[in-house]
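Lecture 7 notes: from sequence to structure.

We start with a single chain of 371 residues. Read the sequence below before looking at the structure.
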Amino acid sequence: MKVLAAMSGGVDSAVAAARMVEAGHEVTGVHLALSRNPQSFRTGARGCCSREDAHDARRAADVLGIPFYVWDLSERFAADVVDDFVAEYAAGRTPNPCLRCNEKIKFSAVLERGLALGFDRVATGHYARLLPGPDGVELHRAVDGDKDQSYVLGVLGPEQLARSAFPLGDTPKPQVRAEAAARGLLVADKPDSHDICFIADGDTAGFLSSRLGSQPGAVVDTDGTVLGSHEGTHGFTVGQRRGLRLGVPAPDGRPRFVLDISPAERTVTVGPREALEVRELEGIRPGWTGQAPVAEWHGTVQLRAHGEALPARAELRDGRLLVRLERPASGVAPGQAVVLYDGTRVVGSATIDSTRHGTTGARDAQPVAAR
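Now the structure, written as C-alpha cells:
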C-alpha cells in the first residue's frame, strides 16, 4: 500500500511513519509548510511550523530511508484556519483551530492531493484508533487517555477515516519516545507542541488585537450595570475569570466569570460561577463518522479536547443537534465542538451554537449565525 506520512517534525509523526515502513508499506514523508513567515526556531515547546521542525522531519525521513517532500499549504491554512479563527472570535465564539486544521488541511487538502498522486492512505501521529465495525472503519479513543486526540478528529467523515491511518493509537506516549530513541530518531526527546501553532508566543489576546484592533466596550453584570471596560470582546471567552479588570467588586465578594459575549453591543457580561452551568446546548453543522442516528441518541459527549466525558442525550431537529446533559457542564462557549461517543467510539460532532440553563429553560448564550 502506498502511504503518505504527514511528518510535523515531532516524535509522534516520526514514529508513525516508521511503523508504516516497518509494516511493509511504500511510504513517502511530507511536511506541511503552514506558516507564511516561518521562524527559524521554535519558541519553547509551542508551535510546529518553524524551519527547525521542517529540518527535523527531513532528518527523520532520512533515518527511515523514505522520500521526503515539503508541501506549501500556507495560503490555504491562512484562509481556512487562521482567518476563520479570527472571524470566530470577532463574532463572539471560541473556536478550536485544531479541529478546523484536521477538517480542512490534514484530512481534506492533504488527502485530496495524496489520492490524486496515487496514495492509498494518509498516516499521522494522532493518538486515536481505527477499528473495523459492522458498517466500516470506526474511530475510537486512544489507549493512552492522557494523549487521546479523538476529540479533534471528530469532524472527519467515513470516507476520510477509510483513507487514514493512526499507528500510535494503541501505544502510551512514553513507549513512543522510547521507540524513537531505539530507532535512532533524534526527535525522541523533543518537547511536544502545544497551544495554538500559529501563535508561537502563546499570546492569543495580543494576536487577536493585532488583527482586529481596539474595539472598546463595557463589562456589565446580568442586570446591565457597568462594572468596567475592555478593548475588544475578542479578548474574552465564556468561563474566563482572570483579566476582567472590574472596578466594582461583587456584593458577596465572590469572583465573577464571563457569562456571555456580545460583539454587536460590544459588551461582556459577567456573573457568579453557578450561572455558567449548562444543561442543554444546540449544535450546527453536525457531521458523522458513520451512520447518523435516526432517533434519540444516548451516550457521552466531550466539550473540550481533554474534557470529561458527560452522559447525555441528543437528537437532530431541523438540521441542528440538540444535546441534553444529564449533569451540568460549566463554561461551555459557542464555537467549541461537542463530540459524541458511544463508549470509546466517536459517533460524530457539531459546533456549539447556543447553550441553555436546563433548570429554567432560559438561554445563556444567544445563537450566532452559521458561517
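Residues 230 and 297 are 42 Å apart (CA to CA). Keep this in mind for problem set 3.
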